[in-house]
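Q: My labmate handed me this sequence with no annotations at all. I'd like to see what the chain might look like in three dimensions before we decide whether it's worth expressing. Could you predict it?
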Amino acid sequence: MTDLIISGNLPVKTGVEVSWSWKDQASGTVEWTFKNTSSVERNVLLFRSGYYFGNAFWPVYLSNPGFNVDWSHNIPLADKGAGSNSAPIAVVDFAGKKLVCFVFTLLPAQSWSMLEGGFSGVHPTGISAITVSFNGITDFCVEYDPAQVQQWDQQTGTKLSGYSPNPKSFKTAWYSCSAKFYTLYNDVINSGPCP
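A: Here is what I predict for the chain of 195 residues:
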C-alpha cells in the first residue's frame, strides 16, 4: 500500500514547529519550514528519517561553495527565500559523543525555510525539532569519514570532494544535546586545534 501523505506538520515541545511540503515531488525535493512559536531565541536540530539533518554529506556541503554552508557562530538565520537559504553546521555534543549537523537558530516568532533533495519515491518520516544548548565558540579538530563523500558522488553522479587536509581545524559554535545520539559515519571530532 502506498503512503499518500503529501505534507506533514509536527508541533513539538521545543517551542519550534517544523513542517514540510513537496517543492518538487518528481525530483524528490521538499521544503522545510521552521517556526519559533516562543518568545525567546531557540537553537534546534532537525531529526528526520532516522538521523540529524546535515550529518550525512556535510564535508561536501562545506567544501563546495555552491551549497553556501559554513560553520555556525550562533547567529539567527537570515531569510533569503527557501531556494537560497542554507543553514550553518556545528559540532553537537551528545554526552561526550560528537557529530556535525545543521543547527537552526531562530529569533522569537521567526519563520524560516530551506530545501532538501533526496526524497525520490519516499517522504520524510519521524520528524522532530530537537533543542540544543549553545556552549560558545571554540576550536575543533575534525576528521570526516571519506565514505560519505564517495556515497554522495555515487548517489548524485558528481565528482565533488570534501575539504582538505583531512583532519582540519575549525572554529565553530558548539552545542549540547540531551536527545539520543545517531550518526551515519565515523567522523572523529576532538576539542582544540589539530596538532
